[in-house]
Amino acid sequence: MVKRSLFNRNKEQKVNNNVENFPVELFKNLNRNIDNLKKMLNEPSDLVIHEFTIGNNKCAIAYIDGLTDKDMLHNNILKNLLIFGRKQDLPTSETDLFNEVQKGLLSISSIEEGKSLDELTIKLLSGSSVFYLDGIDNVLIMATKGWDSRSIEEPQSESLIRGSREGFVENLRTNMVLIRRQIRDPNLRFKTYEVGRRSKKSLILTYVDGIIHPDILNEVNRRLATIDMDDAPESGYIEQWIEDNFLSPFPQMENTERPDKVAAAVLQGKVAIILDGTPFVLIAPITLGNMLQSPEDYYERWSIGSLLRLLRYLAAFIAMFAPSLYIALVSYHQGMIPSELAFSIAATREGVPFPAFIEAILMGITMELLREAGARLPRSIGQTVGIVGGIVIGEAAVTAGVVSPVMVIIVALTAIASFTTPSYSIAISFRMIRFGFMVAAAVLGLYGIVLVYIMINIHIVNLKSIGVPYSTPFAPGFLEDWKDLILRAPVPMLTKRPRYMQTKDKRSANKGGRSS
Amino acid sequence: MKWFDYADEKISDKEIMIAVPSIVIGVGILSMPRELAGATTSSDGWISIVIGGTIFVFITWMVAKLAASFPNQQFLTYASSLVTKPVAVVLTFLLSVQGIILSAYVMRVIAEIAKEYLFDETPVEVIALTFLLVVVYAVSGSRAGLFRLNMMFFPIIVIIAVLVIVFSLGWFNTENLLPVFKTSFSGHLQGLQVSSLSYIGFGIVLFYTALVKQPAGAPRMAAIGMSMAVGLYLLFFIVCLGVFGNLSTANLIYPTIELAKEIEIPGGFFERFDSVFLTIWIMAIFNTTAMGLDVAVFALNSLFNVKKAKILFVLSPLVYFIGMFPKNFNEVVTLGAFVGYYSLIVTVIVTIVLLIISKIKGGKKNGKK
Amino acid sequence: MGKSRGICLLLTLGLLMPLTSCWDRMEIEERGFAVGSAIDLVEKLDNGEYKIMLTTQFVVPAGMSASTQSGGGNQEPFMNLSVSGESVFDISREMSKLASREAYYPHLKVIIISEEVVEEPDLFASIMDVFLRDHEMRRSVKLSISKGEAKEVLYIKPDNEDLPAMYIKSVMENSYKTGGSIEPIHIGEVQEYLLSNRSYVIPSVFVAGDNIKYEGVGVFQGKNNQMLEILNNDETKGLGFIIEKIKGGTIKVEVGGDLITIELADIKSNIKVEGKDKENLKISVKMELEGKIAETFGNKSVLDRNYFTKIEEAAAKKVEELAQQTIEKVQGELKVDVLGISDLLYQRHYDMWQTIEGDWDQGANYFSQSTINVSADVKIEKPGATDNINSNQNGDQ
């Protein structure tokens, strides 16, 4: 556990707020309060302070332009206050007046009292409006959040043929809604954290109470509490902070844009972590088997789902092993290639100046370059890059005799196979491991490949995701869970939640089917 | 992190069931048909396998029974309570030596085989060293991880074994198995002796039962695991005999690998299946070596209160040098015989002695009640 | 825990890295793939050793018709190299120097050994040793003896295949199905023969014009693995029936003056040893054959039950004749048991076999003293698709 203490992630640290020389408390004097606020924020141009009077009492509303829903502010707050201010029988004491405003005037859903400058600044900066009344050292913080955000769209990174078209957006509330709409269980819990010393982002931990194993929950909570950094721009930061082993090439949490995937995971006794400002929701703990599953496996009939999974396991095998096996066979074990094929490979390699390993590395890197270029460029240009790279370079390289045609086939096959993995992050792992295999194959042929394979397995069996062994349910073996692993049993037979998650509520369905 | 039910260092009896065949099945099966066919007439070697197998399944059961009667106690602890502490220390030491020489021998053999079938020029030293490093990497991980490795590899090993057997059925000639029951008694005895050397390794049960959460089922599971190994041996032996006949089997250095060489995969996907078989079999051999080394580390760990990593740091060069000590193949065979007899004698004697004493002491205790 | 694992990982990788220039790495195009080998006898040296010539056929990948790239034009797809010497292993080393590429044997398909070589005592076994010992060799390499020079066979230029060795291999695999020779033998089986001290047969090939013929078998005697004689076509057929090593083939019979060709489909032979007297064993060979009528030259209805039975009887007689002829040859003339009776004795009469093992087809030669009875039973299942094509003459019969 050395690696963990390197970053002091185990120690719970007190988040120290950097309120340097400003008075943190609120005063009775309105002007002083306003001045303090302005000073703290250094009079930004988007800070709006609307001053007016109710009867003889000075008051003010402060908000950040652009972060608030202006319609709501005008119609439900300002309008009411102004009408109220013209009334004759106003309460005389400021406290009464303040209470009256708080209790009966503002037609808006969430009002709370703020007692410190610190508190109200954070709220203000996250879109609330603040109501000041002269003579009161309290303020009202009104939830008027509202800004332009992307509407719900089909997830870009995980498209399905069949299944919901909804994807998460950057807005935390919307994302919560999307999950709530999937699971209407009163036990669905949302626990809020605030992350980022400076960014103060909301982070929500979702789980279903009564399913999840309490230890998993405790562990996630413990780890989330240790997060201490300036900002978490994306859920990837959270993932990397709380993962078990950062030396591992394998992702220990799954990220998804799909609410249905999150809902399914939560119902299996996992937790989901939603961070404000990113559509990627983390799912943990995960196991190796999860990484090769797609929601579509469940939406299509079981035979199709099972076959698709088998196909994906095959694809994962090709993505990891194809180039290294090619190197091992061509550079070491030519006897294993069927005779006719061996002769024709030898014929095509005639005149290729590089050994198979260099050839494979060259083509592999070219492929990665193309993929990266395609991902960075705008979509229309990205396609052009694909065509130029794939067809022109591939064809030209063969004609020029730099690589052999079989190598091009292998590289293309590998690339396509690695794109079939439903999870982008595991696909990256596979690609990294592939290069390791290639080196091993170049050094020791098949023997090297099997040694590296053993090493990867050693790593996997020692790896844990939030304390759950990464290799379950293969090992430790839970045969029941094999129903939904390489093959997927028909839905009426999937009556139990995964054993390896040790859920409190074991069954997810009764024996289904026509008879029941 | 000891907070999650099955994720900690404890294992279940199912894992014992896999661990036993994982350590037993290794290099023995590759050459065993030759030795057995040489000792017996025609296909009569199967009798030796069945008889020897039954005996060893029973011994395994006894060993596990002994260990399971002291739930969650380490070998040193319960051995000390039965015989005195100094004797227990000696026994532990003897058993740890078994682990060391077993892994050293197996490492050497796999290096020799890999050189024969996969390489030509690459020195045995390098092949063995790379293999040993991977083994050390595995042993330095968690012990539960090692059992999980067994579970991951064992199905693959069984699948490849079944593939070889199924594909060789095309070459199988039942005439080759005839005549039956013609071996003399001394032939059977010799066959028994030869085949029993392939069953070594089950002594790990003495140590690993301590890790089993509910060891009550462990004896049964260990016996089932041993039967798996016996079954696989039997199948391989009969198929070798049926394909090659007694004479050829007795003259092939590694009949089991030659079996893989003989077969042709339908569709001609691989021209030579022996390399594929051997490559995958390396996993089986890896399991044996890793378990052997780990049990040595485990035993020594209970003797000396030093860190696992340190013990490993001392042991791994030792294993390497023992493995590299034989200069030629004949000396490797001699080392193998030594390892076999040593392990057999030590494990069986330790078990029997401890069992008898525990019976006597157990009887006394019951009498008191 | 975590630290030591990390260190081990780094150590492993670190040690692996400098090995990148590795001992055994050799790219596929640098290998000289040997696909066929032929062995001829050059001369018998005075010291009792033999000088032999090994001809190996190497693939020249650029000449393969599959590689349609420009350049390779009219290059030959193969190259035959002949080197003489005293041992096969030395020769093949020598050959690597000549070929500029290292000879690589895992793709070896056929080995042809000339009759001159196998006619010498013990030479065959010592030549085979290197092919069986070398782990590069597959056990399924096919072996054949050749009438005449063995290397000539490798110079055949086939029309439908690029490589003569491949052509020979496919001829061997396919032509025994139409009769004339027995199933090809692979070196794995040869090893069993060599080890077992029993007599055996190995099929032979010879060059006939632009083609090769896969016909006849050479009879080897077990004690010194010396070939005695090559059986002719009919004798081979008879042998094939007895030892079930023929897949099909045709026999021609004459029934009532009409020539009828029967295509055999399934052959079963059942050999039994009767009698306890080892000096006069009674051996019965019962063959059951199934076949169909392939060709009739007459005009009788094959649906006629009587006629049908007649054909069957005639066919059975013909089979018996063939088998008897073979037995006379191997038992009477050559006095070696290639009929598999010794295997049978070993398998079914182990105790008796113990007493006669050394004197079966050598020494006292009980084999030649035994009586062998042959009987055959032919069943014709299909009369073919048509009854009779000359129907107008049908009434006259």
TrEMBL record, chain B:
The chain crosses the membrane at residues 16-33, 45-67, 87-106, 126-146, 153-172, 192-211, 223-244, 276-299, 311-329, 335-357. Its main location: membrane. The keyword Transmembrane helix applies. This is Endospore germination permease. Gene3D superfamilies: Amino acid/polyamine transporter I. It comes from Virgibacillus tibetensis. It comes from the Bacteria. It holds the Pfam family Spore_permease. Belongs to the amino acid-polyamine-organocation (APC) superfamily. Spore germination protein (SGP) (TC 2.A.3.9) family. InterPro entries: Spore_GerAB. It is found in: Membrane. The keyword Methyltransferase does not apply. It is a multi-pass membrane protein. Keywords: Germination, Membrane, Transmembrane, Transmembrane helix, Transport.
Automatic annotation (TrEMBL), chain C:
It is a lipid-anchor. Keywords: Germination, Lipoprotein, Membrane, Palmitate, Signal. Residues 215-384 form the Spore germination GerAC-like C-terminal domain. It is found in: Membrane. InterPro entries: GerAC_N, Spore_GerAC-like, Spore_GerAC-like_C, Spore_GerAC_C_sf. The keyword Lipoprotein applies. It holds the Pfam family Spore_GerAC_N. It comes from the Bacteria. Residues 24-205 form the Spore germination protein N-terminal domain. Belongs to the GerABKC lipoprotein family. This is Ger(X)C family spore germination protein.
